[in-house]
Amino acid sequence: MSEPSIYVVRPRDSLTKIAAAHGTTASAIAELNHLTNVNRIAVGQRLKLPHSPPLGAQRTSPPASREARSVFLTFVDALNAPIQGMKVKIEHLGQELQHLTDSQGKVPAFESIQPNEKTRISVERLHGGWKEVAQVTASSEATAVRLRSPKLALESSMRPHDGGAQPGTKPAAQEPGTVTETRSPAGNPVQQVALECPNPNNLRLGPNYKYRDIILAAAERSKLSPQSIAAIMNAEAAKITVTHRDPIIDKKKGTQAIGKDGKPRFKVWVENTGEWNPRSASPLSSARGMTQFLDASWIDQAFSEGTYLNQRAKREGWITTTIIESVVKTKKGKAVVKTTVPKTVAAFRLSNKTFVTKPPLAKTLSQRPYITGRATASDGNLQKLLDLRYEAEYAIHTAVDYGVQNLLALKSAGFTVDSLNDGEKAKIVYLSHHLGLADAKAFINNTMSAQHAQYLLENQVGEDNAADRADKEDGDYLAAHRRWLRNFIDEQIDLAPKMCDLSKAASVRDLIAITEAIRAAP
Which member of 138, 201, 342, 498 has the lowest number of beta carbons within 10 Å of its beta carbon? Predict the structure, then answer.
């Protein structure tokens, strides 16, 4: 396969504009170039352009080429595991295609040419016949569809039953997918399969179930709901992607298509798994880990008394105290006498067993000679501290600690955050993280200047996009920024997908309504 082409960013470019001109999507370019902010590119920056757009579980922006309209289907069971060997029927443009799902639960991609053309997807019933499970409308967009069955397929054989659990009893809480041999009240052998939902915490994490215990522990420490923490994490964390290389099938021959160069042709696309990526790293800054803390911010959290990270740093002996010689001046008559006395001070212990004591310690350690590059320290102990960003336990707990700190700071400034429900608090936590505490206060009180709002908006969406948004608000950049950020956060922070039982979800106001309700008194 040939190498991706390179595009050099020009003035007034945006990812959306570049994608439209090259028959791909902004998210495709961002994935290929490991961009953490799809709205921020620099003039002169070299961007790789994908051969075809990456597709995740959601629809992406409309591509221009016929090939980019390919529709990819994936079939999974109730545990999100691929369903292999299931017969699938695709009724599309007057044609009927039948396939068996492969080991990844996938069938060959098909192309959607006509706008708003509905494609009917059916699966073969266990005892014959077909069941329609979805209708896909690709419009002019590249689409990847993940179809989830509420059922499971289990291997079972006739054999003597060894007893297992007593009739009518329930197995203890287990990992989803665990199969337990038990008996029915009538004494017949039964296989019980553990699923994520329902559960006592009403918490749904799907592909991020492995982080369940961390989320629950962070909820207990912070008194925020586990669903709000999961929603914040889902908004903050980059997702793990998987690159697929699917053969292009010649429709007439029924075999793999061959290119003009005589080589087999493939579609290359990237699937977003939805799983939080603990190894995420920004190529443009020192932001690292699942929650993308910068070097200085992470070190500051380590020195914040009572945080989860602070407790670990103290256990390791990195943050400690030491005794230094302090000079004390006293007067004897007209003379000033200097004496040296021992003094206990806060310190960071370096790997060579010496100490850094210059206050403020967090700021001292966040610059040279201790920080020598992005996410790179000159000292082994400081590097170990920075590398904790890659451990989900510390990334999640520290993000929650930072959120709680911002809520307390807002409360101290007179904002009535205690009146908010979990979903509304999650939006304010995310707002504070996104803007920083000072700008968050100005946004809530609607006291931000139009000039600063323009600066923030242009940094997020680019100058052209920002100007277009301001034009729709009669040239008002402040209104344009508020509308953009409201829509962005309202979309990003959603507790409902993190719940098993949606009937227990509280009504959550939009961001602007929340800010108007909690504003500090003038």
Answer: 342
pLDDT at residue 311 is higher than 60 = yes
User: What SS3 state is found at 406?
Assistant: helix
Beta-carbon count within 10 A of 102 CB: 13
Long-range contacts from 296-301, C-beta under 8 angstroms, 24+ separation = 296/362, 296/363, 296/366, 297/402, 298/385, 298/386, 298/388, 298/389, 298/398, 299/362, 299/365, 299/366, 299/382, 299/385, 299/386, 300/362, 300/366, 301/398, 301/401, 301/402
Distances (CA, A) of 482 to 102, 452, 493: 47, 12, 16
The number of angstroms, rounded, from the C-alpha of 508 to the middle of its chain's C-alpha atoms is 21
- Ordered by start, the domain boundaries in the chain are 74-148, 156-195, 295-386, 395-518
The C-alpha atoms of residue 379 and residue 372 are separated, in whole angstroms, by: 10
pLDDT digits (tens, 9 = 90+) for 171-190: 455 666 666 666 666 666 66
Q: Are 252 and 209 in contact (CB under 8 A)?
A: no
Q: What is the C-alpha separation between 497 and 494, in angstroms, rounded?
A: 7
Residue 310: both structure tokens together: 């602070």
Predicted pLDDT of residue 290: 94
Per-residue tokens: 341 = 């006395």
Over residues 215-231, mean pLDDT: 96
Q: Which residue has the tokens 């041999």?
A: 181
How far apart are alpha carbons 20 and 464 in whole angstroms?
15
Kindly write down the DSSP assignment for every residue of 368-400, as one continuous string: TTTEEETTEESSHHHHHHHHGGGSHHHHHHHHH
What CA–CA distance (Å, rounded) separates 91 from 518? 53
| 65-94 tens-digit pLDDT | 334 466 778 888 767 778 888 899 988 777
What is the helix (H) or strand (E) element at residue 103, kind and residue range? none
CA gap 280, 289 in Å, rounded: 5
Residue 309 DSSP SS3: helix
Phi, psi values for residue 222, rounded to 5°: -95, -20
Residue 142 has what pLDDT?
52
Burial of 44 (0-12, 13-18, 19+ CB in 10 A): exposed
- Scanning 257-391, the segments in alpha helix (DSSP H) are 295-302, 308-316, 361-365, 380-387
Q: What are phi and psi of 411, to 5 degrees?
A: -65, -40
d(CA 302, CA 319): 8
Report the 10 Å Cβ neighbour count for 94: 5
**CATH-assigned architecture of domain 74-148:** Sandwich (2.60)
Check if the beta carbon of residue 118 is closer than 8 Å to that of residue 45.
no
